[in-house]
Amino acid sequence: MEENQEITYGKVNRDILKTLEKPGKIYYILLLITLSVLGLGFFAWMYQIVKGIGVAGITHPVKWGIYITNFVFWVGIAHSGTLISAILYLFGAKWRTSIYRSAEAMTVIAIMTAGLFPLVHLGRVWYFYYLLPYPDPKLLWPNFRSPLIWDVFAVTTYFIISFIFLYMGLLPDIAAVRDRSTGIRKKIYSLLSMGWTGTDREWRHHSSAYLFLAAMATPLVISVHSVVSWDFAMSIVPGWHSTIFAPYFVAGAIHSGLAMVIMILIPLRKFFNLKDYITQRHFENLAKVIIFTGLIVAYSYATEFFIAWYSHNTYEHEIFKYRVFGDYALEFWIMIIFNTMVPLLFFFKKMRTNIVSLFVIAFLINIGMWFERFVIIVTSIAHEYMPFAWGTYKPTWVELSITAGSFAMFALLFLLFVKVLPSVAISEVKEQLKPPKKGGGV
Amino acid sequence: MKKTPSGVLGVFSHLDSTLKAIEKLKEEGYKDLRVHSPVPSHEIEKLLEKKVSPVRVFALFGAILGAVSGALLTTATALSWPLITGGKPIISIPPFLIIVFELTILFGGIAVFLGVLLNARLPKISLYHMYEPGFSEDLFGIFVSCEKEQCNSVEEILRSSDAKEVRSEEG
Fold first, then answer.
1. Is residue B59 located within the same domain as residue B108?
2. Is residue B1 part of a domain?
3. Among B67, B58, B64, which residue's Cα sits nearest to residue B114?
């Protein structure tokens, strides 16, 4: 995009603000579909609250089912947003500018979606405040040695910092929207823009803050999925108790998140006619990073098996055999093929430059990554130490509806985001262009 | 209406004209300049010779406060009910460090946000009436605070630097 000198500051504003104009029919149809599926999910949750957690399929021995699978999946989806917005910013990768806003919005929305699942999984959701650090009447505080409380701190911090980071980036762009709107819209955007006028003072502090927030978000994002992985690795369950879990989960998170970014950018680019901003190069770069994360994920799978064999531990041997040949063999092979083999197709230039193949591969990776979490969580507790305590798990319609509802909620919030706020960073895209100069330049 | 200091606003279409005007104004001894731009500009920042943003200090103190809060929260609550669980020490340093780390980042991030608001003087209730909406699109602007008598010479400098438009304001 930065090579294209036909793009001027004014054109960037016009093109991107066009995305906020009155939507067409397709948009409303999509809203209706997502709202209906979300309604179904909400109904299922209400049903579970009224009838009790027994309506879900989670029971002895598999007490962590697809609610926890979804939690890990959605937290993972959030990660690539931070990779693109913060980590690539610190590395000075300029190609990130036109895609980072939608990736960062995806992060915030995905954490919101993820955050619902521990509550759904609780059953009696009204006791959620037990998780918070407050002194109860007996002055008993949460046990800070428990990975579950680390999760509360990590995910809450991640949400707040990602939200601040998104909002900081949005400030100058909200001002741009404000300056071109009228009536009640102008009032709302004025409030949101906090009176931003683009003075040297504002820019100076803004740029400094942006750098610090990126520097803080980078270790944070690594810590969040590490903490999520420790929910499993801190226990002594075979297949979970492994030191590789933290890096393995972080790589997997970025793997699935990048695939989701591709799946979001393709329709965004098409419907809003953003071909000048979201280019082939962006997709190619994302595909190349996916090859890298896919290889790390493949290496992690291989290491897990190697260590299980090398350990000479009967239980470890058994669980890994069970994963490959047991009740969930199909899910296991979906995970292996979709996460490690399918991404290798991106080695072919044709595959990473064709929109259809990009979308299909990204979609398959997301399915694969969802099943990865399912396989890790369910197989280990279905087939733990004592054979007489083994069992299988099948999600019920309640769990499946809530899962579908979560995907609908994610899509709905993203649809609302792209119509309310600029989904491409106006000021940062302009920063990459040559400024208008009288003596040459634009 | 609230009284604002009198001054002159020059609106520019080009960055180089804006930079030229800033230089001239500085030569004439006008220090109190407020420059508007659609994007952050290192060239403008360099000419204005402002100090490094103190937001970094906010980040540091926020992070220290977060780390101390995390350490206090975990150790003090563990000591307030010293019950051994899982055979682990009452003050278990490795797990407590996770809480310390998360709160370091949380408080640091919030402090950075507050640092921007305080230093950039945001939020502003209303935009000053001379604000040009084009500043968020492709226009640059220089607002110079000046006494009534000086304003004429400021206007002249701005005009001679190819300002697209010059507006003056009376206090």
1. yes
2. no
3. B58
